[in-house]
Amino acid sequence: MKQIAIVPIVIFAKILTWIVKVTKRGSGTALPGLIVGRRAPWVLSYLLEQIPHIIVVTGTNGKTTTQTMLRSIIETDNQVVLTNATGANLSRGILSELLKRSNILGKISFKSALFEVEEGTLPRIVAQLKPEIIAVTNLYRDQLDAYGEIDITEKYIRTALEKAPQARIVLNQDDPRVSKLAQGLPNEVVYVSLPEELLTHFPYEGIQSKKTKPHKQSVKAKSIQIHEDLTSEFSVEGKVGDNPITIEDIRIASPGFFHVYNALVAITIASLIKIKPETIKAGLQNFEPAFGRGEVIMKKEGTKAVHYRLLLVKNPAGFNLNTQLIQAIPNLKILIAINDNTADGTDVSWLWDSKLEILNESSISSITCSGTRAKDMHLRLKYAFNILPEIHTDESLDWALQHTFETAKHGDTIFVLPTYTAMLEIRKLMGRQLEE
Amino acid sequence: MQYELAITHLYPENLNLYGDTGNLIALKRRCEWLDIGCSVKNLEIGDKANKDKTDIYFMGGGQDNDQLKVVEDFHDLKYKAIKEDTENGVVFLGVCGGYQLMGHSFIMGDGKSTRGLGIINIDTKAPGKEVKERCIGNLIGEINEQTYFEMSRMYDQDRDLPRTLVGFENHSGQTTLNDEQVKPLAQTLSGFGNTHNGKTEGARYKNVFGSYMHGSFLPKNPHMADYLIWLALIRKYNDRSIKLPSLDDSIEFEAHSYIVDNYAA
């Protein structure tokens, strides 16, 4: 019966996606999944059941980058993998992707899928996903009004793990909230970690439980260097399954220690699915930053070219990490773009939890504030600076891009710190469309 | 004469959600700009409070577990001193969870009622069944007349102060004010405030203030920040003629009016 019922649903979804795109009302990553999910909830399991191997990445920060890194490794290994579109990590986004990738008979040919899944969504769909591997990157405070409380998010993920006894689990050992998630569960667990002296950079919460013996399986990063061009270099060693793993001098085009975590999770999952170390290394070398996560877009007019490096900020943790990353750069030019749409979090209180005071140490060349909450951002900076530099503020991102371009010199880099929808809007204004 | 104020931040380690530290940042910076000496002391769980040492108390909201821990500690180590201070006119500001905690009872996420700190006669209850969702969104209120009247006379020159307070609320608890001495801080113009039917926002008893506004509250409402500072000064120096110099608050009020202009229902 379902084999017949699925056909008009898939056709409907495909037409709807097409209409959404043609009328430029969006990228079509939400609506088909939203409608089908409500009217015919069985479709999600029906489509998922056809994919034998499913990997899930969750956590508050780093889902997209981890997914993109792992995808690059898997593709370097000449395998194809189905992924949900960047940031479309609610069940509607996953369902939309499945509907798009199936043929009109509702058949999906992919043998494996790699989904980033939003933390609150995971316990609701984990039974349908039946993932072989679940990775948790970290648990920072996310958009304040999405769930209210980080304790609840922690419970969501724990519940999801309890519902997935078949899954192998990859956890961030350094994040106290994450490292204890698998306590008492029968699952096989691999822990990833950074050298201890770097942990002060991260806003982890809670107290690490004292463990008496080392984990059976773990992957550690060492000799981490962040280069001037903001690429990161490091080596890893550890043990996954019964096999020791060592990879030297991995270079990734993503700036910051926090991206080393994402790479560690990607490396660990790749090892779990038996991809060779040299392929993993090459895959990470091939990786290009997921959009908005360190991606560079060039704006050109005549002979003048200015680089815009997009560093997504969606919570105090990300804001702090990205500010630390750029604060030592001489003649710093910053564009901060804060929107308050649903996907950004409608409460901008988190700007006050971000430690922007460290910018007092920076050599600032220019600061521009934009987005719907440009004025809130300007106000935050007024209270952060001991001596307030000149700040240009306008809600229009179009204006902000034009202004920063006009006041920059050829070859300059502008560091853009946008919230999620501001980032999408900036990319669109610069002629980059959403990924296919 | 050089004025000085002592601020006490209650339980910053446990009650630190929703950017409410912004209120401390605002008080510190504004004291600095107003040329008022300002020291901030943190009182955590296990620290004893002493009376007559503080001019302004601040308390934010936290997660359920943390709020429970705090109540017990408060009654053990702080109640007597802080209750005496607030009865004597010391300024106290609680925001959201902090506001609910100040009352006689408040509720946990699971709807259970718990004893509060008891420094203001309010109660917070779980919403009835007719209320489906949390009160979430931008909140705009009109400051009560008496408070606004005083506020508009605290500066050394005439200023055209907004009559509004703006912020962002996110709570399920419904707060009722229990006696005549406890007045609403504002009438709700947009959003909910104390209760789901959205009539009043926040509370004031003597110089104890509570509000549901995050955002953060004081940075976007500099007149309120200055008012707390002024109340603390006239009490400490026992001189009602003290006036505050007027700062350039154009950036503050631009952010303030942006909310009033764009988010009013």
Automatic annotation (TrEMBL), chain A:
<dbReference type="GO" id="GO:0046872">
    <property type="term" value="F:metal ion binding"/>
</dbReference>
<keyword id="KW-0067">ATP-binding</keyword>
<comment type="function">
    <text>The lipid II isoglutaminyl synthase complex catalyzes the formation of alpha-D-isoglutamine in the cell wall lipid II stem peptide. The MurT subunit catalyzes the ATP-dependent amidation of D-glutamate residue of lipid II, converting it to an isoglutamine residue.</text>
</comment>
<dbReference type="Pfam" id="PF08353">
    <property type="entry name" value="MurT_C"/>
</dbReference>
<feature type="active site">
    <location>
        <position position="347"/>
    </location>
</feature>
<dbReference type="GO" id="GO:0071555">
    <property type="term" value="P:cell wall organization"/>
</dbReference>
<feature type="domain" description="Lipid II isoglutaminyl synthase (glutamine-hydrolyzing) subunit MurT C-terminal">
    <location>
        <begin position="312"/>
        <end position="423"/>
    </location>
</feature>
<comment type="similarity">
    <text>Belongs to the MurCDEF family. MurT subfamily.</text>
</comment>
<dbReference type="InterPro" id="IPR043703">
    <property type="entry name" value="Lipid_II_synth_MurT"/>
</dbReference>
<keyword id="KW-0436">Ligase</keyword>
<dbReference type="GO" id="GO:0008360">
    <property type="term" value="P:regulation of cell shape"/>
</dbReference>
<dbReference type="Pfam" id="PF08245">
    <property type="entry name" value="Mur_ligase_M"/>
</dbReference>
<keyword id="KW-0547">Nucleotide-binding</keyword>
<keyword id="KW-0133">Cell shape</keyword>
<comment type="pathway">
    <text>Cell wall biogenesis; peptidoglycan biosynthesis.</text>
</comment>
<dbReference type="InterPro" id="IPR036565">
    <property type="entry name" value="Mur-like_cat_sf"/>
</dbReference>
<dbReference type="InterPro" id="IPR013564">
    <property type="entry name" value="MurT_C"/>
</dbReference>
<comment type="subunit">
    <text>Forms a heterodimer with GatD.</text>
</comment>
<dbReference type="InterPro" id="IPR013221">
    <property type="entry name" value="Mur_ligase_cen"/>
</dbReference>
<protein>
    <recommendedName>
        <fullName>Lipid II isoglutaminyl synthase (glutamine-hydrolyzing) subunit MurT</fullName>
        <ecNumber>6.3.5.13</ecNumber>
    </recommendedName>
</protein>
<dbReference type="GO" id="GO:0005524">
    <property type="term" value="F:ATP binding"/>
</dbReference>
<dbReference type="GO" id="GO:0004326">
    <property type="term" value="F:tetrahydrofolylpolyglutamate synthase activity"/>
</dbReference>
From TrEMBL, chain B:
<dbReference type="GO" id="GO:0004359">
    <property type="term" value="F:glutaminase activity"/>
</dbReference>
<dbReference type="InterPro" id="IPR043702">
    <property type="entry name" value="Lipid_II_synth_GatD"/>
</dbReference>
<dbReference type="GO" id="GO:0140282">
    <property type="term" value="F:carbon-nitrogen ligase activity on lipid II"/>
</dbReference>
<feature type="domain" description="CobB/CobQ-like glutamine amidotransferase">
    <location>
        <begin position="7"/>
        <end position="221"/>
    </location>
</feature>
<keyword id="KW-0378">Hydrolase</keyword>
<keyword id="KW-0315">Glutamine amidotransferase</keyword>
<keyword id="KW-0961">Cell wall biogenesis/degradation</keyword>
<dbReference type="GO" id="GO:0009252">
    <property type="term" value="P:peptidoglycan biosynthetic process"/>
</dbReference>
<dbReference type="GO" id="GO:0009236">
    <property type="term" value="P:cobalamin biosynthetic process"/>
</dbReference>
<dbReference type="GO" id="GO:0071555">
    <property type="term" value="P:cell wall organization"/>
</dbReference>
<comment type="pathway">
    <text>Cell wall biogenesis; peptidoglycan biosynthesis.</text>
</comment>
<dbReference type="Pfam" id="PF07685">
    <property type="entry name" value="GATase_3"/>
</dbReference>
<feature type="active site" description="Nucleophile">
    <location>
        <position position="96"/>
    </location>
</feature>
<dbReference type="InterPro" id="IPR029062">
    <property type="entry name" value="Class_I_gatase-like"/>
</dbReference>
<feature type="binding site">
    <location>
        <position position="134"/>
    </location>
    <ligand>
        <name>substrate</name>
    </ligand>
</feature>
<comment type="subunit">
    <text>Forms a heterodimer with MurT.</text>
</comment>
<keyword id="KW-0133">Cell shape</keyword>
<feature type="active site">
    <location>
        <position position="214"/>
    </location>
</feature>
<keyword id="KW-0436">Ligase</keyword>
<comment type="similarity">
    <text>Belongs to the CobB/CobQ family. GatD subfamily.</text>
</comment>
<comment type="function">
    <text>The lipid II isoglutaminyl synthase complex catalyzes the formation of alpha-D-isoglutamine in the cell wall lipid II stem peptide. The GatD subunit catalyzes the hydrolysis of glutamine to glutamate and ammonia. The resulting ammonia molecule is channeled to the active site of MurT.</text>
</comment>
<dbReference type="InterPro" id="IPR011698">
    <property type="entry name" value="GATase_3"/>
</dbReference>
